[in-house]
């Protein structure tokens, strides 16, 4: 049994109250203000109605831990409403009418604007010599800084076709206001004896400093974006929209047989090999996921990793990680490629096409020749100088003279080591590794 004295019983409630007040006071919950963008309008405005999407793409709250006064100081600042209004105020300097509105009202406007806003905390650490009791040692100092990324995309509200996308970033050090600095040194001078009293005041002052830093960085990024946007105002002149449509010509029928394959870990490419929706891609694209999301050429423009239709998912049927191949099943009817597994049908020097989704681009075609047909790391591969980049993985290598697939794009030698050296797993290797022929034996595949 634990016994408490009368003095202790009186002291414990007071201590509990102090701790509760301290815990509450060391947490800051703020909100980015409206009206932070106050810049004169451009001389001649574009007569158009623009809607900033305010409900579909919610900007995440910014969280920060400040260890200057105490390790328990935490800050949460909501930026969604303030950032959307700031974007609207910025666009209002160039367009005649700008509103923040719900996505469902987009048809009432000439353009819709999507804001992507992110802030990363990047600490900078340095050491300074420090003397204590006759000894010199190096003391570690941590200087917080914020890296702000802002992307503004204007789209056609009917086709969702992007008209222009502009990005800016800004790196700045966190600067505390005079009140926060004064309280910090007061805590030092009093040897933290007044810490329970001054900690809430410090947290409030420091939170205001963080919020103002975020507002200043967002304002600076938007100013640069608006300058670039004004220089491209010709895009918004009457009759200019039609010229932005894709014109894939003779290659469109090939692109319609390919897919944009997406997982939570990244994206790649695939291509159909049967009318019932079986397609090939790389194992490193699907990784260990049972299902993948995909887009078709007809879905353009595609906005990856957005919770918006179309929602298409495919089931992974077979995977061979050692040889980096995967067979996946989508539901529906699709145009498809024919695999040419006969190695004698092509040779070094013949022109080929590499189809895929490199980096942030979608449904592209690059042309080159077969550089060699050989064994590479135990795989029967085709070396090509057709441009293959990250995101092309799993896409088809098409022989120009037949239009058939002779390989699956897999990897490229690092550009800093060599140029124009890419490898595709031959269709012969694909068919024997995955145990498939054309037409596919779908009864066997369904049982797996």
Walk me through the structure.
This protein is an alpha+beta fold and 448 residues long. The protein has 2 domains: 186 residues, Rossmann fold, CATH 3.40.50; 202 residues, Thrombin, subunit H, CATH 2.40.10.120. Helices cover 23% and strands 36% of the residues. It contains 8 helices and 22 strands. The strands form 5 sheets. A 6-stranded antiparallel beta barrel has the order 11-12-13-16-15-14. Strand 7 and strand 8 form a beta hairpin. The longest helix has 37 residues. The radius of gyration is 29 Å and the shape is globular. About 2% of the residues have low confidence.
Indicate the mean pLDDT.
83
Q: Quickly give the structural class.
A: alpha+beta
Shape: globular
Please state how the strands of the largest beta sheet are arranged side by side: 11-12-13-16-15-14
In terms of per-residue confidence, which ranges show pLDDT below 50 for 5 or more consecutive residues?
19-25
CATH architecture of the largest domain: Beta Barrel
CATH overall fold name of the largest domain: Thrombin, subunit H
Give the beta-strand count. Answer: 22
Biggest beta sheet attributes: 6 strands, antiparallel, barrel
